[in-house]
Amino acid sequence: MQKKFSPDSFIGMHASHCFCPSWLSRTGTGYPYLSGSGNIGMVPAHRAAFQLFLGLLEPGQMVLHRCGDPGCINLWHLYIGNSQQNSRDRILHRDAQTRWGPLALHYHSEAGLHVSMRQPLAISWHVCRVADRFEGFDPSQCFTPNWLQLTSDGYLQLPRTNALGVLAGAHRLAYSMYVGRLSKYDVVEQKCGNQLCICPFHLSITGRISQLDWEQRYDGRFKKIV
């Protein structure tokens, strides 16, 4: 089913469907990743999503896909497991007689962005070792995870950096994964007025800083020159 969505508007997620946004870069094996935000380097999007909305990871822990789709960042489909569970999941999806159901959703925007929501028929339901099962986002409620630390200017952040939240806050990561493409010059704010909120329903681009203004405010190399 083809549906349209407006840029700068979160379309929501469904437990029964994947969430695969077109605007994220991908590795050769199909995993989306984030890069260039606050010097965080290249971060797998499914691991960042888990830590933003479900809980922090310890070194060596694996974030697995219940749906078997590496491009999916639906929080209902992510869980912490081990190599044995990973192998069982691969067998489950490989041996599924029918991999995808007929009720796929495809959202398109006039800006050329799209979100693919295929319907996986084979979904593993191993108990997650870290977090409770995801309960979804409520448009009427903020989401303020208490496991994330604050930036110097009062935003939540992941990972911990010395960068300002207006550059590398968790709200910017959440927007770039679940709402739409984001430039470093875009200003992302919470429509709810809560600076700690990272609920995708509450995030919006409210303006854009010119390249010169951005360099004057935030680029340390520019400050050294002048």
TrEMBL record:
<dbReference type="GO" id="GO:0004519">
    <property type="term" value="F:endonuclease activity"/>
</dbReference>
<keyword id="KW-0540">Nuclease</keyword>
<feature type="domain" description="HNH nuclease">
    <location>
        <begin position="44"/>
        <end position="88"/>
    </location>
</feature>
<keyword id="KW-0378">Hydrolase</keyword>
<dbReference type="Pfam" id="PF13392">
    <property type="entry name" value="HNH_3"/>
</dbReference>
<keyword id="KW-0255">Endonuclease</keyword>
<dbReference type="InterPro" id="IPR003615">
    <property type="entry name" value="HNH_nuc"/>
</dbReference>
<dbReference type="InterPro" id="IPR044925">
    <property type="entry name" value="His-Me_finger_sf"/>
</dbReference>
<protein>
    <submittedName>
        <fullName>HNH endonuclease</fullName>
    </submittedName>
</protein>
